[in-house]
């Protein structure tokens, strides 16, 4: 598996375990949790075929320009530089996962994919499981939200893989408000799997996708993104769900053409970072506030520490209540 190109910060490898005791009984749906968008994309492979979800224009572009086209694609498709272990050590606890089969693959292997293919799903899950075994009080969310070319036999294979890799760490579905660190620690659960497919109704440890809504702004405009984020938090809760705020700008075809050689990070993400960080720091976790916040290039701009620090507002509010 690819090594990390980002700088991991071990201060947050055990941030959940380090939370004050008063936070142990707060529902995780009411806490601030940092996550990564297209979490697996650090390992997008330029030698791989184009993913089956890509439009014909992209397929044609690659068929004409070959490797050069894929190198340019990677600059726009790879939204992370850190591998799973480095993200976990840096404090990321939510993973946005998109799964695909490869055309004409005799092994029916499952891969992470975003335009091009990434690592095998098993490689990624085993890396995550190794971290959890070494950090027994950390809890993660795996959000399987897109499936490309995945048939029933592949879903069955993925469910069996999750059981094999995580075993007793998998948390069965309960009401979201019951899920606190105390609850999970007592039962030794560390993994909540969200599965945006009807298979979730058949397997006790697959949480239905509608319990992890993640509205998408689909804009290149930072101001529109912030307006969208604020509006979605304001009418946030279908009561009793977790909730993802995607602090993510999405390039249009014209954006890509203008900055084709620069890539996503330089053209969009870094320029918009100050405004996005300002929005994050202004938020509060809770039933009517933010919960999970995802971003591209999670090592940028103190993103992870800013999200984690929002949890300490719970403590300040509790102290204010005691004073009155």
UniProtKB/TrEMBL annotation:
The keyword NAD does not apply. One of its GO terms (molecular function) is phosphoric diester hydrolase activity. It comes from the Eukaryota. Gene3D superfamilies: Phosphatidylinositol (PI) phosphodiesterase. PROSITE patterns: PIPLC_X_DOMAIN. PANTHER family: PI-PLC X DOMAIN-CONTAINING PROTEIN 3, PTHR13593. Residues 22-196 form the Phosphatidylinositol-specific phospholipase C X domain. This is Phosphatidylinositol-specific phospholipase C, X domain containing 3. The keyword Hydrolase applies. Keywords: Hydrolase, Lipid degradation, Lipid metabolism, Transducer. One of its GO terms (biological process) is lipid catabolic process. InterPro entries: PI-PLC_domain (IPR051057), PLC-like_Pdiesterase_TIM-brl (IPR017946), PLCXD1/2/3 (IPR042158), PLipase_C_PInositol-sp_X_dom (IPR000909). One of its GO terms (cellular component) is synapse. It holds the Pfam family PI-PLC-X.
């Amino acid at each position: 598996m690819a090594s990390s190109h980002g700088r991991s910060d071990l201060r947050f490898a055990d941030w959940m375990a380090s939370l004050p005791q008063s936070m142990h009984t707060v529902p995780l749906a009411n806490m601030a949790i940092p996550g990564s968008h297209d979490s697996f994309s650090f390992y997008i492979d330029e030698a791989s075929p184009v993913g089956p979800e890509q439009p014909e224009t992209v397929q044609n572009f690659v068929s004409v320009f070959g490797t050069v086209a894929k190198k340019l694609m990677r600059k726009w498709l790879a939204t992370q530089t850190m591998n799973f272990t480095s993200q976990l050590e840096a404090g990321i606890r939510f993973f946005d996962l998109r799964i695909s089969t490869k055309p004409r693959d005799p092994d029916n292997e499952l891969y992470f994919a975003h335009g091009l293919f990434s690592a095998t799903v098993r490689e990624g899950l085993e890396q995550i499981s190794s971290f959890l075994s070494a950090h027994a009080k950390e809890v993660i969310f795996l959000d399987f939200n897109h499936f490309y070319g995945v048939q029933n036999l592949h879903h069955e294979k993925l469910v069996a893989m999750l059981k094999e890799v995580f075993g007793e760490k998998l948390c069965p579905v309960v009401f979201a408000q019951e899920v606190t660190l105390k609850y999970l620690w007592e039962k030794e659960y560390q993994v909540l799997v969200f599965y945006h497919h009807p298979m979730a109704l058949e397997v006790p440890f697959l949480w239905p996708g509608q319990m992890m809504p993640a509205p998408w702004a689909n804009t290149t405009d930072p101001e529109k993104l912030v307006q969208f984020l604020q509006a979605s938090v304001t009418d946030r809760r279908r009561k009793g769900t977790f909730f993802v705020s995607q602090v993510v700008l999405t390039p249009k075809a014209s954006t890509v053409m203008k900055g084709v050689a620069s890539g996503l990070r330089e053209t969009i993400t870094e320029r918009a970072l100050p405004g996005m960080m300002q929005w994050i720091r202004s938020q509060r976790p809770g039933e009517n506030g933010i919960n999970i916040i995802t971003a591209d290039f999670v090592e940028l701009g103190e993103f992870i520490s800013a999200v984690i620090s929002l949890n300490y507002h719970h403590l300040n509010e509790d102290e204010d209540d005691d004073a009155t």
